[in-house]
């Protein structure tokens, strides 16, 4: 990864819908070169995907950032089970307060609570610490 790749990532993080022509102009390269670089970043899994940032409240959904504490010997089993839950949109392994952080989106607070309970019942899960998203400020 070089400076141009890092600049492409920076531009995509700030606006994933930025036209490749604008990236090319910023980097002083061709649009074809930008397409090739982005394809390589994706192939190497340095860019994992693109997603819309949703205002959950305005579209009638409920969401949480949920910490999950897990027995170390059951970590990968729990990760695989969480990956299989459709409501779990993102997963991160972390240091600090929780072993796993999960972004969970549901149709209601009640459904969110049921998902948290399902996670709590998974073998190896020691504690589930949900933080309900009330507003997105940035």
Automatic annotation (TrEMBL):
InterPro entries: AsnC-type_HTH_dom (IPR000485), Dimeric_a/b-barrel (IPR011008), Tscrpt_reg_AsnC-like (IPR019888), Tscrpt_reg_AsnC/Lrp_C (IPR019887), WH-like_DNA-bd_sf (IPR036388), WH_DNA-bd_sf (IPR036390). Residues 1-62 form the HTH asnC-type domain. One of its GO terms (molecular function) is sequence-specific DNA binding. Pfam families: AsnC_trans_reg, HTH_AsnC-type. SUPFAM superfamilies: Dimeric alpha+beta barrel, Winged helix' DNA-binding domain. Transmembrane segments: none annotated. It comes from the Archaea. The keyword Heme does not apply. Keywords: DNA-binding, Transcription, Transcription regulation. GO terms for cellular component: cytosol. Signal peptide: none annotated. PROSITE patterns: HTH_ASNC_2. One of its GO terms (biological process) is response to amino acid. PANTHER family: LEUCINE-RESPONSIVE REGULATORY PROTEIN, TRANSCRIPTIONAL REGULATOR AZLB. This is Transcriptional regulatory protein, AsnC family. It comes from Archaeoglobus fulgidus.
């Amino acid at each position: 990864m070089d400076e141009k790749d890092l600049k492409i990532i920076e531009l995509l993080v700030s606006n994933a819908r930025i036209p490749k022509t604008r990236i090319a102009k910023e980097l002083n390269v061709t649009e074809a070169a930008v397409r090739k670089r982005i394809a390589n970043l994706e192939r190497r899994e340095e860019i994992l995907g693109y997603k819309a940032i949703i205002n959950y409240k305005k579209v009638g959904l409920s969401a949480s950032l949920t910490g999950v504490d897990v027995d170390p010997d059951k970590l990968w089993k729990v990760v695989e089970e969480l990956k299989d839950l459709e409501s779990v949109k993102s997963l991160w392994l972390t240091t600090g307060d929780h072993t796993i952080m999960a972004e969970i989106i549901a149709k209601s607070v009640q459904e969110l609570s049921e998902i948290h309970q399902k996670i709590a019942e998974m073998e190896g899960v020691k504690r589930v610490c949900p933080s309900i998203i009330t507003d997105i400020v940035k």
